[in-house]
Amino acid sequence: MDFGFIVQSLPLYGRAAQLTLTISVWAVGLSLLVGFLCSMVIYYRVRGLQFIIKIYIELSRNTPSLIQLFFLYYGLTQVELKLEAEPCAVAGLTFLGGSYMAEAFRSGLEAVGKSQIESGLSIGLSDAQLVRYVIFPQAFSVSMPALEANAIFLIKETSIVSAVALPDLMFVAKDLIGMYYSTAEALTLLVLFYLMILLPVSLLLSALERKVRYGQFGN
């Protein structure tokens, strides 16, 4: 193990980790938003949109994420729509993650008992108040484990963005291996930097899950 090479490579991995983290934050945040909106459309059976959302979910979940990214980056140029690499990476991961988040939210929404909804209506809550104070807190609590798993999955999926020449962690590792044949050192740093990103996120989300699952809403 060449520790001198490892030390010299740290700045490259640091910049790559920053890019990976930036893409991850945007992708997870937008995926949560897309997933929630899609789940609400399905839950309330919005005519017209419900069928479109179901097609999107099946298409997203049953096609490889790398193919989706290639389609956005290369395929859209055929209709004169060119996306820069970073926005394209965020869009591709959001397209993938939104479908998984939608299914996670949907399972939570369907877990809310009808008696809870009827109780909310009986005290005069509007539809918006019913979602905010009754449905969403309980659905979010039930969905939290799946949302946590999906968020970690999306962060790991950022490894595919190197395919569109973004200098993320995977790109840097492959580049160093190709130039210097320092496979062990490059892969060791790759693993360590992914752990530095994913381990704190996992611990934070686990703590949030415990708080949400056992918290007392309304207090």
Task: Give an overview in words.
The protein is mostly helical and 219 residues long. Helix 5 (114-122) packs antiparallel against helix 6 (127-157). Helix content is 79%, strand content 0%. It has helices at 3-43, 49-61, 65-73, 85-111, 114-122, 127-157, 169-180, 183-214.
Give me the secondary-structure category.
mainly alpha
From the alpha-carbon coordinates, what is the Rg to the nearest angstrom? Answer: 21 Å
Low-confidence stretches: none
| Helical content class | over 70%
The main sheet comes to: none
What is the number of strand segments?
0
Write the H/E string, N to C: HHHHHHHH
Number of discrete helical segments: 8
Straight-line N-to-C gap: 55 Å
Q: Which percent band covers the strand fraction? A: under 5%
Q: Sum up the overall morphology in one term.
A: flat
Mean pLDDT: 90
Reconstruct the topology from this structure:
Layout: H1 3-43, H2 49-61, H3 65-73, H4 85-111, H5 114-122, H6 127-157, H7 169-180, H8 183-214
Helix pairs in contact: 1-4, 1-6, 1-7, 1-8, 2-4, 3-4, 4-6, 5-6, 6-8, 7-8
